[in-house]
Amino acid sequence: MMWIVILLLVLGVCIAGAIYMTGTIGKFGLIKKLSKDRKGMRRLLSFGVIVVFFAIFILTMSVVNAIIIFLHLIIFRLLFGLIFLIIKKIRKREFKIYWQGWISIIVCTVYLIIGYILCNNVWMTKYELTTDKKVGNLRIAMFADSHLGTTFDADGLKKWVDEIMEYSPDILLIPGDLIDDGTSREDMIKCCEILGNANVKYGVWFAYGNHDRGYYRDEKKYFSEAEFEENMEKNGVHILTDKWTIIDGRFILVGREDKSRDGRAEISDLLKEVDNDKYIIVMDHQPSDYDNEAATAADLVVSGHTHGGQFFPITRVGEYIGVNDRTYGYEKRNGTEFIVTSGISDWALYFKTGTKSEYVIIDIEGR
Predict the structure, then answer these.
(1) 46 pLDDT more than 70
(2) Is 275 helix (H, G, I), strand (E, B) or coil?
(3) For residue 86, what are the CA distances in angstroms to 80, 82, 100, 131?
(4) Which of 119, 236, 265, 291 is the most buried (most CB within 10 A)?
(5) Cα 359–chain centre separation
């Protein structure tokens, strides 16, 4: 239901935006000249410009990204339209050049180029934690939200896994959205092999996100959940779904079912039989159960899902409306430490302007 509402809202905004942009594009000198300043022809040419550029972005990117670009252009045009309206009232005369139009295009272009760079490149983010528990020194590598096939395929994933391995982590954690509906069968199989070949002392561990099982994969018939799990297990990649395990007698690792699934275990029930004296790490894809997790003996909870808030200035909207407890980064509650990553890639979108793509290295110093 939520997605239907969002779809209808976006559709409505795009229709209203197309009407608005048709009027504003007609104010450019070239359009006026070509139309010989005839109102009907000017609107027709303006609408044609919108259709052509929209088609170009659909063909070179996707429908979703074309909509994102169009929405940003509308926002910048409204913003600079307001600014120049104020300036016009102050100077009490019109500009000869359609500055608000040109500046809107230039600023929007620069903004989205930066967003493209931030999304399609990957940075390392490091955290250093301490604990009184007897875990010794432990280095965790973690990434989430690769949504394989969006900004890189399996070969691209290998590049980033190889880079992560240069930090010699003791364990690699993947808290969700490794794959999604757009992931091909070939990339899924290669992905599992790449993770299986990662040289990690305590192995690679995965917990499901909201996209990994797919929303409509049965229709596309790329592969089933069972085939995905079979390939993960065949390559030695461990899946934890509402389960926990003790690793090398040193620490406990917990993998939660994603919040979107019915029947997910309460964290208190999941941890009721664990040894609280051991360091406890929880993988929970969506950062939305902080109070309950902080009320347990969990020491560290790692999450993804939020993509770091995606776009400035709406990065923290999820927190404001109560969908997420945190959008990005580190927080400590009642002795439990929480880390949310912005993700190593993105779902469908090629732009991040409020954050950047990353993988995470967590160094834990214990007794």
Answers:
(1) yes
(2) coil
(3) 10, 6, 12, 56
(4) 119
(5) 12
Q: Kindly report the pTM of this predicted structure.
A: 0.92
The Cα 160–Cα 236 span in angstroms is 19
Closest CA to 176 of 292, 307, 274: 307
Amino acid at residue number 213: R
Residue type, 291: D
Tell me whether residue 213 is exposed, middle or buried, using C-beta atoms within 10 angstroms of its C-beta: 0 to 12, 13 to 18, 19 or more: middle
Q: What is the residue-wise DSSP string for 1-46?
A: -HHHHHHHHHHHHHHHHHHHHHHHHTTSHHHHHHTTT-HHHHHHHH
Which structure tokens are listed for 110? 């620069």
| CA count, 13 A, side-chain hemisphere, 227 | 16
Query: What backbone torsions phi and psi does residue 202 show, to the nearest 5 degrees?
Result: -105, 10
Please tell me the distance from the alpha carbon of residue 303 to that of residue 234, in angstroms, as a whole number. 25
- Looking at residue 272, what DSSP letter applies? T
Judged on CB neighbours under 10 Å (0-12, 13-18, 19+), 46 is: buried
Residues whose CB falls within 8 Å of the CB of residue 78, separated by 6 or more in sequence, listed in order: none
At 255, list the tokens: 């993998």
Is the CB of residue 327 less than 8 Å from the CB of residue 89? no
Structure confidence by residue, pLDDT tens digits, 197-236 = 999 999 999 999 999 998 765 555 688 899 999 999 999 9
